[in-house]
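User: Please predict the structure of the protein below. I'd like the answer in structure-token form so I can feed it into my own downstream comparison script.

Assistant: Understood. Taking the following sequence of 413 residues as input:
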Amino acid sequence: MKKIFLVAMLVLISVGSAFASPAAINFDEVILEDEERKALVVDFLNSYDAVSYYEIDGEAKKQDELNKTKALYEHLKKIKKPTCDQELLELLTLRCLYNYDWVSAKDVVKKYEAITKKYKKNAEVHWIYANFLTYSTKQIDALDEFELYLELNDNMANEYFMKDYAYCQLVSGMPLSAYYTLTNGFTIDEKKIEAKGLLKLIKDNIKKSDYKKVYKPEEVWKISNFGENKAFIFSTMLGMSIPVTSKTILGKHTAFDKEEGAILVIAPEPLTMNKKKEQMTFIIYVYPKKLYKEDQVDISIDNFPVYESQEKTIGKIDYKVYLYGDGETKGYIYTCKVKPEKTSGVAVEHPCRGEAKTENGATYYTMNKSYERLDDTLSIAILVLPKDAKAFKAKDADAQKAIEEYLATWKIR
């Protein structure tokens, strides 16, 4: 069994109560005026903060709390016709017992599947299961479960859910998203947030971007965790996110400085155009406008013979499109200017783990820090080069369509 917690975090002590899943359960529908059950539930709730997370060498000092959790679990198992909330509570006790190997992950999954099969539109089961996944080093799946809860609950959620969701985003390497969630889309003042420890931890992992500073390429560009053979290369600093697969070729990527903008070279899987698969290379230049007295992007166009130019909106971004070449057509240039928004960094952030370390059966991850989007209009030029110079010719509508369908999968904010 794999457990997860974060270096320098003192497990969850610094963020207060571990997970707030009990808020997903209607305990009146659990107890149903049964005094024995009521006493077991009270004992469990008093033990919950201790057993809801894993702590190295914690089992010995938590025997009493674990025994009370197991007692409630054994009681709930014996109910012949349980209510939905009784089954949810059983799932919650299983999740807590799993933290110390008192039950297996298969036991938790089996109960989750039984509830979802019986109560297809129940949202709360996904909240509880998401917390289980968060602590099972399966954060991407956990994020999906949190999203499913919101979908089934008409995007309505209480502060306890938002705290759990934000914590999952934080340990997934998305502190900007965690801050957005905890503040309910920047609508809640920090002074009114009760989870002060979690708020501080989130803010400690958000860094201010500054166009005057020098950054390392790995600070500007990051690659998300792969899920279903798909990931993203992204930059919260530059407000960009580009999907990649295991077959994508990533070339040079640099930070910006006073001499030039940031650069990213990427060759995605071959694009289909004119009934053939063609390999394309995209060279992306990103210029913080404050670094330049003139518009470097427009100046760069003068270096290429241009057949034609047009304006297009792709993925909500307004581009100028240039078809350029010398003799045989060589490619396209797409240019745009993008102003920052408050949610620019959040919109392009993806799960991204820090360095993993394993000790005494526990998996440690250093915290991943995210940079805020530069507070500056960015000028962007995307140079598209075909591997075969004859891959497309002037005014090749099919080739341009394939390129722009690929560009539409990018996020630029």
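That's the full token string. The two ends are 40 Å apart (CA to CA).
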